[in-house]
Each structure stands twice: as C-alpha cells, then as structure tokens.
Amino acid sequence: MTKNEIADVLAEIGTLLELKGENPFKTRAYQAGARALEAIEDDELATLIRDERLKSVKGIGDALAQKIGELHATGKLEFFEKLKASIEPGLIEMLEVPGLGPKKIRALNEKLGLVSLVELSAACADGRVAALDGFGDKSQQKILEGIRNRESYGRRHLWWDAHEIAVPIVAGLRALPQVTRAEAAGSLRRGLETVGDLDFIVAATEVAPVVEWFVTQSGVKEVTARGETKASVRFESGLQADLRLVPTDQFAFALHHFTGSKDHNVQMRQRALAHGLSLSEWGLVPAEGEGTAKEKAGGGAHGVHAGDETALFAALGLAFIPPELREGLGEIEAAEAGELPRLIETGDLRGAFHNHTTASDGRNTLAEMTAAAEALGWAYLGIADHSKSSVQAKGLSEQRLAAQVAEIRAFNASGRFKTHLFAGTECDILPDGRLDYDDGVLASLDYVVASVHSAFTQLADDMTARIIRAIEHPRTTMLGHITGRLLLRREGYAVNITKVIDAAIANRVIIELNASPWRLDLDWRHWRKAAARGLVCAINPDAHETAGLSHVQAGVNAARKGWLTRENVLNTRSLDGVRRWLGERR
User: How many CB atoms lie within 10 A of CB 397?
Assistant: First the structure.
C-alpha cells in the first residue's frame, strides 16, 4: 500500500472508533497518524519501516507503527476488518448523508435506536429527529434531503469511477482472439460528468467465449442477463455493464447508435430520411427498408457500407463528429458547414494552477507534487494551498504562506526539477466579497485563485455580488469552482452564472474548469457561448495528491463537451506564454 492508501485506512479507523464512542484520545491518535503519514514522502516511509524508525515520526507510536507496517507489507489489517464488522452496516451508510458525522450518528443510534437509513428517514418524517438536542427542524430537513439525494444519485456514477472500470474491460475484450473490434459507448464515451451504466460494443468471429469472459470477469457481483449476443452484469459499486455483440459490418452503426445521445440520434435519423435513407443500429439503408430484414442486413448490397463512424458521417454529408459533441446542440449543422472546432486534447496541457500540498489539506509534499508533474511532462505547476480562513483545510497564515513562497522560489533556483513552480493561493472569498489576504500578501504571489468555501446558503443576488466583488479585485487571477457543486453529493449554491461570466470577461479574470471528477465546474453547458465571447479557461485538477493531477483528463472531457479548443485554455500555453500572460495581469 502507498502512504496515502494507508492514511485513508487510519482515518477511517478514527471515524469508526468515533462512531462506536471510543475514547476521543484514541480516535484522534489515528487521525493524527494519518496526517503524519501524509507529510512523509513515499520513499521515506519505506526506509523508516525497513530501519524500524517509524516511531521516530511525531504522531506515530508503537501501535500505529505496527499497523502501518502491516498495511505497507500486506495491504490488509485484521484490526480494521474486525472493527468494520463490529458496527451495524446501516450506521456506516449514514456517514454518506451530508451533514451527518460520527457524533450525530451515534446520538441517533443511542437515543432513538436507529440502525438504518430507512429507520432514519422514518424518524425524520415523524419529527423525532428534530426533537433531539443538537438537531432541530433545520437539521432534520437537511438529513431528509440528504437521504433523498443519496437515493437519487445512487443510480448514477462519476465518469471517473466508471472510466476506471471500463478501461480494463475494453482492454480485456480486445485481447480475446475472437474479438476484432471493441469499444465503450454510451454517456461514458460522450464524456458526460456522470454515467448511468456502461455499454460495450463488440464485433467478434465467435460470440460464446466473449460472453463467457464478460460474465466471469473479476469484480462482477451479479449476472443480470445472458444471451447469445447480449449480456449484462453488475459490479460491487452497483454499476451495470451491458455487452452487445454485432457483426463486423454493423459495428460502426451500433457504436454510433449506442453512443447517443438520444437527441443526437433523433436528428441524425431525420437527416438520413431527408437523404432517402434510414439510419439505425443495424445500418444505413434505403428508407423503404426501415424496420425490415433489409435494414437489419446492414452494409449489404442494399445498404451503405461504413467501416467506421467517419464513413457513416460522410455518407450523410457530414464531417466526423467527436463523441463529446453528440448532444443535439448544433453539432450536426456545424459538421455540415465544416465549422467543427479542433477540440482540446489532454496532450495539449502544459501544466495546471490549482493544486494543494501537505501545507494545507493536500496529501503529498511540495517535492512529491513537483516530481509527479515532471513525470507527466508538464512545464509548470501552480501551487495554490488554502488561505487562512479555511481552518478546516489547515489554511496558511501570512507567515506560513511567505515561507512556502520562499520554498517555491528556492526549488526553482535549485534546478532540482525541470518543472517550474508558480507560487499562488486558493484564497477564500469572504461572505462580503473581500479576499482572505491583504493586497500586500497577494502582491507577493504569481497568481490568485479566488474561491467560495463558506456561507453557501446566501441568496443568489448576495452570492453573485460577493463573487463579482472578488473578481473585480485587481489581484484576482482566476475564479475557482464557480458553483461549489459536488456531483452526486451536493448541488451548487445559488448564483447568477451569466452575471459572473460577464464580470470575469470585463475584468480579464479566468474562470477555471475544475477538473476534479466530483466538481467539473464551471459546467460544460456554459462554455461554448462564454468562450465565444472571450472568456479564458484554465483546466485545473484541484489535486490534493499526486494521483489527482491525472484528473485533468476529466476536465478535458468537459472542455471538449463545451466546444473548447487549445486556444481557449491558458494552461495549453508554454511556460514563457504563461509568464507573459501573468505578467500582463499584474
């Protein structure tokens, strides 16, 4: 296990112990141990364990050192497994409801005997929760909303999570000797921020072995359907995956059809009819063949042959439409007119600006984050740890920020890394729109990401005015996660996005596309019009650990859905280009 994976286990142990009502000192010991681990570099951890010097690290005693060593060596911890088994599963599920922490869950269990979300929902419905000390009507309402959201959101999954399941499946299918072509389709292929289920389209010379492999692959919890050309399975996460096997000459048509979206497909079928043709998952045939065996014959003598989707679009007088654009939002008209943009690609990115280290709530050191950026081939990396008002995220005081800036300057001067570091901050926008540091502190930085982290319940007009005031500050470089949403967990706060975009353009302030798979904020649906008006984007991973830097891929998906090109995005520029841009802003 890596240090961060071990830290996750320690933090979860602390939460579970708190849920059980254990001694708070014991609970805090595991939480402190998790934080201590995050401040150690991975190589250093291995050395400390090997030399039996882990106890020399402040916050790690004998018991923790033994457990960390066991997790590092085996990836398992018997104490952790027994602890989880000793707690009602329903109490652990309650932790997934926003606003319910271990202390409140324990109170609900001890005072009302609640052990499941069903019981909790009923207790809220009849007012028993509101009657408890420390809860009240407002807390009860928030709990009910959280339970309803959890049930609603439970039917969808983050794109990133679905992607991680889909990639090895596609690789496994392509490796089978019977398979000639295999692709993932559906909302995953379109890069939608959340995914309902997975669709895999496969052309194969023999179907039975492919179906057998699909339903017996590791991670499958349940086989929900199995036939000669179709199969469906469900994974431990609840995500369903559907397999469809088609003849090779129908592959392009099936891939296009099951990629969607529904609106795109409807418009494509209408276009085909205008050309005297019928388009379906089976093929592109003369319209009189619609719904007949002739249509299902696909690319035979009576149909249009299409070896791939490019040929399919060409048969209807269109340029190839990237899957991300297939939402029925003008992409067909643009393809006909030859006006589709050259969409940004992950390889266009040269760095990113919104990233955290262990100085605030990050989980990797400055050196580790820089090394990871260098491994990605990035020319630069911006460090934007939290400002002082974000106490929950260990926000930096003015003195700590100054020390970090000095460390960053020293890193650059040392030549230790090829990747250049920019010194920034994720500066809280206070409830009245002021920034969390004074002008003198902000002037010492290369850039400033201004973000809302508090007072989410302000009225839309107040929140809008608050954000615009921050945008108008001369030291604000970019606006972070504009709505504060957390996908499948929390709706964004009320804000007039159009007015905020207007203010950003007027003040030459960037609005980031926060690439965290949980955010993807500003939403892709706003970018096409905003970029056409001159709004500049920065695709930022909001990385809190080295692995988080790769989340830029999710951000690029969203940027592509928003019709963005490399010219619309600041961090596609070279190091010199970014320096010039930042210099002009000062």
Answer: 11
Which tens digit of pLDDT belongs to each residue from 60-95? 988 899 999 989 989 889 999 999 899 998 999 898
Task: Kindly tell me the burial class for residue 425, based on how many C-beta atoms sit within 10 Å of its own C-beta (0-12, 13-18, 19 or more).
Answer: buried
CA 315, 316, 318, 322 torsion-angle sign: negative
What are the distances in angstroms from CA 28 to CA 11, 145, 191, 193, 475?
9, 30, 40, 36, 39
The residues, any chain, with a CB within 8 Å of residue 318's CB and separated by 6 or more, are 271, 332, 335, 336
Token pair recorded at residue 478: 């970019």
Q: Which of 53, 77, 64 is nearest to 27 (CA)?
A: 64
Of 536, 528, 522, nearest to 577 by C-alpha is: 536
Cβ atoms of 479 and 500 closer than 8 Å: yes
Residue 381 CB contacts under 8 Å (≥ 6 apart), including other chains: 351, 352, 355, 369, 370, 373, 419, 420, 421, 422
Q: How many helices (H) and strands (E) does the chain have?
A: 25, 17
pLDDT category at 289 given cuts 50, 70, 90 is low
Nearest Cα neighbor of 486 from 48, 146, 187 is 146
Distance (Å, rounded) from C-alpha 139 to C-alpha 577? Answer: 50
The domains found in the chain, sorted by start residue, are 3-153 (1.10.150.110), 155-246 (3.30.460.10), 257-340 (3.30.210.10), 346-585 (3.20.20.140)
Asked if 359 and 366 touch (Cβ cutoff 8 Å), the reply is yes
Kindly give the residue spans of alpha helices, DSSP state H, lying in 507-565.
527-532, 552-561
Q: Tokens for 192?
A: 């939608």
Residues in the chain: 586
pTM of the model as a whole: 0.83
Place of tokens 């001369």: 474
Instruction: Tell me how many degrees the CA angle 95-97-98 measures, rounded to the nearest 5.
Output: 105
